[in-house]
Specification:
Blueprint (H helix, E strand, L loop, with lengths): L1 E12 L2 E12 L3 E5 L6 H9 L6 E6 L2 E5 L13 E4 L11 H11 L4 H14 L15 H15 L3 E5 L7 H18 L2 E6 L2 H7 L2 E6 L2 E6 L1 H6 L4 H6 L6 E9 L5 E4 L2 E3 L10 E7 L5 E3 L7 E10 L4 E7 L2 E7 L10 E5 L6 E3 L5 E3 L1
Parallel strand pairs: 3-8, 3-9, 6-7, 7-8
Antiparallel strand pairs: 1-2, 1-4, 4-5, 9-10, 11-12, 11-14, 12-13, 14-20, 15-19, 16-17, 16-19, 17-18, 20-21
Helix pairs in contact: 2-3, 2-4, 3-4, 4-5
Bound molecules: adenosine-5'-triphosphate (ATP).
Keywords: ATP-binding, Cell membrane, Membrane, Nucleotide-binding, Translocase, Transport
Membrane topology: Peripheral membrane protein
InterPro entries: AAA+_ATPase, ABC_transporter-like_ATP-bd, ABC_transporter-like_CS, ABC_transpr_MalK/UgpC-like, Mo/tungstate-bd_C_term_dom, NA-bd_OB-fold, OB_MalK-like, P-loop_NTPase
Amino acid sequence: MSEIILSNITKSYGSHLAIPGLDLEIPKGSFVTLLGPSGCGKTTTLRMIAGLEHPASGEIRLAGKSVYSGDTGSFVPPEKRGLGFIFQSYALWPNMKVDRNITLALSEAKIPTQTVKTRLAEALSKVQLTGLEGRYPSELSGGQQQRVAVARLIAARNSILLMDEPLSNLDAKLRTEMRTELKRLHRELDATTVYVTHDQVEALTMSDIIVVMRDGLIQQQGSPYEIYHNPANLFVAEFIGDPKINLFQGEVTKSGADFAVSIHGLNVPSRRGFEAPQGPVTVGVRPEDIEIHHEPVAHALAAEVDFVQPTGSQTLISLIVKGQRVTALIPRFEMSLPTKNVWITLPVDRLTLFDASGNRIAP
Ligand code: ATP
């Protein structure tokens, strides 16, 4: 069942059409990430779900109820939508201690004092802040302030959580820790979560579903695996993956059971049938799928090693193949390779083919 439904939503800022027509369904209990480059409309979409931004037309339904309809002009204000949010600035009240920051909304909602106390204790314990409830936000570290904001969400028990780049002010180590905490929060609360980020690692590590956006339009919606391995088009293929996917200009020479594609004059033979129209294609190969050989093998392209960069558990190898830079990633620490001249092979079952307009045609 879909907990959040956006139907043909549009939004303009002055003459700028930021969202030209968005259809999005978010299943109950899922962790969905809106991902895309700056200005693609992620925040605008989230703010329209929250009721902080008024769409121009379309309909928004939350938990089976219409909260906005362009046809009737109805609009439910944010505080009546039953949502929890956490934004980039955690929006803690500086003049209130941690406990009050967490429980303010509960007291205002006239929840009995004893229940508020129980929920406060539980929320503090979940984010490991028990004992710090008497401090002001200014007496806490950035990470602790973040956790107060998370505790406020836990205490409120909303069935929908909206998060806009909540980790962007944190240092790298805290970001990694908080990713795990937010994921745990999602699992424990079982709340439908919409998360906005331009950070693909956050999207890949936390999401059940990733929605990749560009210029207010959805490019692809799918599991992290689908987005990474079966990108819908070149934009998604290049946006996801670090280091970036390698792209080659190629030509399909045979289709069907004896499929073959030629890249830089090299015929990459088929290991299994593959249907694709004959003619020019763009061939995508992820860096970890490039196979490096130290002597010539069949169906290999000659390559020159330009530089070798170990990153700890992996090593990035930058190669030049017929004048084109190609990146390979090997799953171990190497300071250098034994020779400057190597050969690469491209495993046919790891290739992704795109047509002239950039849409994936196979597999
Ligand atoms: P970022 O990652 O930089 O936050 P985003 O994907 O969240 O980007 P939005 O903030 O939703 O993008 O913006 C979508 C488009 O709408 C952009 O072109 C932006 O310049 C424009 N926009 C957003 N808010 C306003 C506003 N208040 N007034 C005018 N234009 C706006």
